[in-house]
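Support request, please re-run this one:
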Amino acid sequence: MTASIPATGRAAEIDRALDELTRGEAAWAARSLAERRELLERVGAATAANARDWVRAAVAYKRLPENDQLVGEEWITGPYPVLTSVGALSASIRALERGASPVDGFSVGRAPGDRVAVRVLPHGVWDRLLLNGFSAEVWMPPGVPEERVRARAGLSLRRPTETGGVGVVLGAGNITSIPVLDVLYEVYANNRVVALKLNPVTDGLFEVFSRVLAPLIEAGAVRIVTGGADVGAYLVHHQRTGHVHMTGSAATHDAIVFGTGPEGAARKRAGTPLLDKPVTSELGGVSPTIVLPDVWTDADLRYQAGHIATQRLHNGGYNCVASQVVVVAADWPQKDRFLAHLRSALSGAPERPAYYPGSDERVRAARAAYPGAEAVGGGRVLIEIPDSDEPGPALTEEYFSPVLAVLELPGDTRQFLDRAVRAANERFTGTLGVNLVVHPRTVSALGPELDRAVAALRYGTVALNAWTGVGYLTATATWGAFPGHTPDDVQSGIGVVHNALLLDEPERTVVRGPFRPAPRALLHGSAVMSPKPPWFVDNRTAATTGRLLTEFAAAPRWSALPAIFASALRG
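Re-run finished. Output below.
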């Protein structure tokens, strides 16, 4: 299809940007690994220098008070992961410069199903101190030998002169680090020069992003454009564009790839896309949380209810990996008490504006589909699904708003786990992330059965006693849907991003966290030093802790730790 002229009359401007990138591709191919790393490190320095402006711009478009604790979300999901990614990716490039593998120095073990597992968290003393009790592994597909994992790590940086053409990144409008991280992955992992088209929601970040990415812009590897859907359509269909990466919903993906209306639906059925070029994507879904039954203390019930409320309400509920369905055991004696704590956590979380377009309409649609849905304050909705055979749209439509459903399944612990895994794989839309909340006693009792359940879950990130968002924040982890989706059944997308070890065709990331925070964990015999995480929506010092963590990521040093620990403990 020939690119149609944007209604805004900006075709000449976009043509010029793509022409500049075409010339920049040749210059990029000629750059050594050391030169590319130096440019990346300059991006890191620019991120640190512009971090406060970045957060101010995010706070402005999300309409948060500047002194609100929720500002911590903008530090932790804005400049912070860009800084950690720059550091981790720079280390991988240094390894390639000396002829080594980026995997060297990381622990490599085994996972169920004849899988190689690369331990990416903790890695180094800072991780062990700041994320104590958290761990993450990247699992490779079954049967892939360790030697191949090591030999192929590095992706396109192993062939730096073989560039990948001009790509378009359609930036996300919710989490502000996504556009920058996607650009870095395209440029470094895929050796592709990039036109970043901002989501109009984030146009206020144009100046900040221009300063952050200035080293790559000056090198001819990146251009940033703004505009509406007409500009996006012109870019992706342009003859100079060879690849598209997008973050959004499956519906947006289908509109871009197949078109809209009856014609688009017909093209999708026929498998004849309107956009006839490769498209990778990170899309959403319902991202369930499975709560395994056991005898919990009331403090455990309260804490994990707050944990799940965070999984839904972080960033106002506008996250691709926000938990939309909580799966509980119908026969759990503490079920009602847990749900009471969950209501309290949802209603007691800080109120915030519904900044993302269409949120109020999606909330109304949820309430219309479930007349018995409960308003729990601040525009939030809790849906209890009594009949698992007729669950309605909560399991299959991403609401992308503060709507949380509870689905009950029968059985004792083992039967429930088996049914919950089947439901997550077969009945829920999307494969981006799934969470499991499991008491340590249950972990011990299930033993290898729990490991096999984790392996059976077909999700790009599986989190055990942690939110899958921790996987997003871990630079060396992978982020994306479970592999195997196709354009006509895209689910949560195709391909991965982040992946600072540059692993070739990884399968998933598995994250583990502490069931209880410090100091309460110590009282139960667990040597965990991490207090309530700063990404919890009710963390009282999230803004300060988020800023301190970002400053530390820019310049790690022992002298910064006391202030971080003090702020985190007050949270």
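The longest helix spans residues 11-29. The CA atoms of residues 192 and 510 lie 29 Å apart.
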